[in-house]
Amino acid sequence: MQRLRLEPGSVEETVREVRDLLRRFERPSSTWEIGSSATPADLGERLERFGFVPVPDPDVLGMVLSEPPPPAPAEVEVRPVSSADDYRAALEVMHEAFEVPEEAAAAELAAAGETFARWDTSPDSLLYLAWLNGEPVAAARATFTEHGAVLNAGSTRRDARGRGAYRALVAARWDEAVKRGTPALITQAGAQSAPILKRLGFREVARIRILLDEAS
Known about the structure:
The protein is α+β, with helices and mostly antiparallel strands. 34% of the residues lie in helices and 31% in strands.
């Protein structure tokens, strides 16, 4: 749940409505992102009284880049994923970086061909893969909107960190946003990525706290 603008008297009703909806779709949990402009001003505290709890590392920053980032290192090649094999390689990078449990990772890889065929039909969403010395070492997504590109899932293999792959992925997505006439990048950054993004020119525009609800 995002962009929450609730009337003070409607919070309980909204929680109940969302829980009922998720229950019908057999979704056992949900996350609620409480931004610095959410209403009412004490929404986070109210939700915690309903049993919501902070996720691990719950505090993130909303960040925007509206000026060109530093150029990508020459030795890093970045290209959009265009085959099921590259899609699997990107998944493997993300699984390692995000420490995805083995069973969940295996299930996602088993369905990779079908998922890629379905995902590849969207003209507004791209998955990028960064290569170093012929090896896939980093991956990231972008969703392109009329206001700019929304970045997520940026991840780099542990053995390739500090060599510019993450920076190259930012540059590639910036270039595509410029090509589409919307030169801006938007993302949410946690404790690990925020310092890197600040060095690349991103600026903070919001603070967000993420709460987990498992009552549905």
